[in-house]
Amino acid sequence: MEQAPSIIEHKGVRIEDTFAEAFGMRAARVIITARSPGWARTAAGSLTGFATSVIGCKLEAGVEAEWAAGETPDGRPGVSVLVFAFDSEGLAKRLIERIGQTVLTCPTTACFDGLPDAEDRVNVGGMLRHFGDKFQSSKFLDGKRYWRIPVMEGEFLIEEAFGVRKAIGGGNLLILARDSGAALEAAEAAVEAMRGVRGVVLPFPGGIVRSGSKVGARHYKKMIASTNDAYCPTLKGRLGPESALPADVNSVLEIVVDGLDRASIEAALRAGVDAACRGGVVAISAGNYGGKLGKHHFHLRELVPAKSEA
Amino acid sequence: MVADLAHDRICSLPVWLGKNRRRLDEFFDVEGEKSDELRIVGDAGRVKWIGRDMTRGRITVEGHAGMHLGSRMAGGEIEVSGDVSDWLGAEMSGGAIRVRGNAGGQVGAAYRGGLAGMRDGTIVIDGRAGLEVGQRMKRGTIVVSGGVRDFAGLEMRGGTIVLGAAELRTGAWMLRGTIVVLQTIPILPTFAYASTYSPTFLGLYARRLKRLGVEIPVEESAGAYRRYTGDAAIPGKGELLVWEPRG
Questions:
Q1: Does the residue A1 lie in any domain?
Q2: Cβ contact, residue pair A148, B205, below 8 Å
Q3: CATH number of the domain bearing residue A36
Q4: Which of B120, B200, B207 sits opposite A110 (nearest CB)?
Q5: Complex-level ipTM
Q6: pLDDT in tens, A138-160
Q7: Residue A98 belongs to some domain of the structure
Q8: How many CA atoms lie within 13 A of B127 on its CB side?
Q9: DSSP secondary structure string for all residues of B171-199
Q10: Is residue A147 located within the same domain as residue A172?
Q11: What does the domain layout of chain B look like in residue ranges?
Q12: Which CATH number fits domain B38-245: 3.40.1190.20, 3.40.30.10, 1.10.260.40, 2.160.20.60?
């Protein structure tokens, strides 16, 4: 990670002149409907569990939005989930695993594609139908096939193919605060603001990461990621790691954002920066790898109003 | 057929009166030039094959229409304000037909000797229809808001039929597909009762048909559907879903 000198302030908080480095990914949107919003949330929560980072979970996922009954394909309340992986093939495998284990099993749910215009499509319902052991049936409506899988409760309905599109993963913010309480309050405020933006998800628990990582490790050669020592307050002053933190920073939290396109990520980051600039926060920064790994760069200076510049 | 023709060419299109070939303008006053929209005004109740093999555009019939309306059509829309005769949308593979009045028999059916009836598309009839609605249909949706006569879904292979009511032998020899009936009907003894439930997939149809002004009950608080499977005489894997209001 590298850090540039700060030149911007917003609401009295320093905005470091750096950028978040993000990566090209593939994404699918899964719309889960159920008899009640509560059951749709339950299924969505299960589907997006243990899906924080592609490094350890093979995908990243999160709840995008809640949908009113009138907005969903079957007219029931729903929740949309965005799922990200590095390629379409991997995404299809993960969708089959996760929908099969968490949505098919959840009472009253049904599952629909939320990217109908995407050209690239992966077969999900068409694979999960085999759970029906040849007792399944299908409906073909408006050019789409839906599978009806008999289950003990009644019937599970799932769309055969799900759209996959290019997307961006790994947009991020770092909130540098005087203490852990201030960092958490600012991060919570940022998460609430960012979750109001459609087209993005915050895949970590509660949308917040306390353990940002660096690529590889200094001492364990087989590790593909290890603690971001430059931003660990307890390592300040220690020989070895070079701290990136000012003296008055005692806690750092990160918010990672994955989105369907650049505009939605920018909107989310903008909302997050604005909400996170509050008392107890020393600076807002972002994680990058010098621009060498990811082709999508989100410069913080472009995310704050021009009048905020010092 | 008329979409790409100039006025003169449209006037000279052949019309068959029995075995005699005549010109279109001997029977119709023709107005306008080539267009994707065709409007037929007056009683065309004895005019057959309107919209046959249609692939795009829109035909509006202000009055009645004769047999074979929309036969084998693959796309576009047809709307009839009055009644239509038999073989409406027979063997159609796409597009949409809306009839505000009643229809005859064999709606969306296979022609005699044909292996498959309707292959896709939508037919909505606000009134009643006759015998063998959806006979041998493979895919698509037929809605008859009023009742239909005997043998609805005869030898049905797939697709969905929604009926306000039905007379006898509904679903006879059906192999696959769904017949939804909104009133209690006589069930063939070769259909077995399975369960009473609220099929989620009907929500897809309810939402789509609502745009066409057709209501299918799907609210669990209002009732549920009795599911019957059959026809065991084949043996088939089709289903009858019969609406049962709560209370």
A1: no
A2: no
A3: 3.30.70.520
A4: B200
A5: 0.93
A6: 999 999 999 999 999 999 999 99
A7: yes
A8: 16
A9: TTT--S-EEEESS--PPPTTSEEEEEE--
A10: no
A11: 1-35, 38-245
A12: 2.160.20.60
Q: Do B201 and A35 touch (CB under 8 A)?
A: no
Interface contact flag, B203 A75, Cβ < 8 Å? yes
A98: CB partners within 8 A, 6+ apart: A47, A51, A61, A83
The Cα A88–Cα A279 span in angstroms is 43
Asked whether residue A66 falls in the same domain as residue A39, the answer is yes
Q: Do A74 and B197 touch (CB under 8 A)?
A: no
Q: Residue A172 has which token pair?
A: 């991020």
Q: Which of A36, A139, A152 to mutate to test the interface with B (most CBs of B within 10 A)?
A: A139
Q: How far is A44 from chain B (nearest CA, A)?
A: 18
Considering only the beta carbons, identify the residue of B203, B220, B237 that sits closest to A74: B203
* CB contacts, 8 Å: B141 with chain A: 141
Query: Tens digit of pLDDT per residue, chain B (247 long)?
Result: 667 888 899 999 999 999 999 999 999 999 988 889 999 999 999 999 999 999 999 999 999 999 999 999 999 999 999 999 999 999 999 999 999 999 999 999 999 999 999 999 999 999 999 999 999 999 999 999 999 999 999 999 999 999 999 999 999 999 999 999 999 999 999 999 999 999 999 999 999 999 999 999 999 899 999 999 999 999 899 999 999 999 7
Task: Work out how many CB contacts closer than 8 A connect A with B.
Answer: 49
Pair A171, A304 in one domain: yes
Number of domains observed in the structure of chain A: 2
β pairing state of B20-23 and A137-141? unpaired
Judgement on whether residues A194 and A298 belong to the same structural domain of the protein:
yes
> Do A128 and A188 sit in the same domain of this protein?
no
Say yes or no: A148 and A173 in one domain.
Answer: no
CA angle A117, A123, A125 (to 5 degrees): 100
Interface test with B, best of A103, A137, A159 (most B CBs within 10 A): A137
Inter-chain CB proximity A75 and B160 less than 8 Å: no
In 10 A of CB A129, how many CB atoms? 23
Contact B176 A75 (CB under 8 A): no
Supply the angle between the helices A180-194 and A262-276 in degrees, to the nearest 10.
140
**Do both A36 and A101 map to the same domain?**
yes
Could you tell me if A237 and A296 lie in one domain? yes
Q: Is the Cβ pair B197, A140 closer than 8 Å?
A: no
Chain B residues close to A148, C-beta within 8 Å:
199-201
Which residue in A33, A75, A139 is closest to B218 by CB distance? A75
**Would A152 be classed as within a structural domain?**
yes
Residues of B in contact with A32 (CB under 8 A): none
Chain B residues within 8 A of A156 when measuring between CB atoms: 200
| Neighbouring-strand partners of residue A182 | none
Instruction: Give the CB-side neighbour count of residue A210, counting CA atoms within 13 A.
Output: 10
Residue where one domain finishes, among candidates A130, A165, A200: A165
Quick check: is A136 in a domain?
A: yes
- Residue A159 CA to residue A145 CA, distance in Å, equals 6
Range of the domain at A249: 6-22+167-308
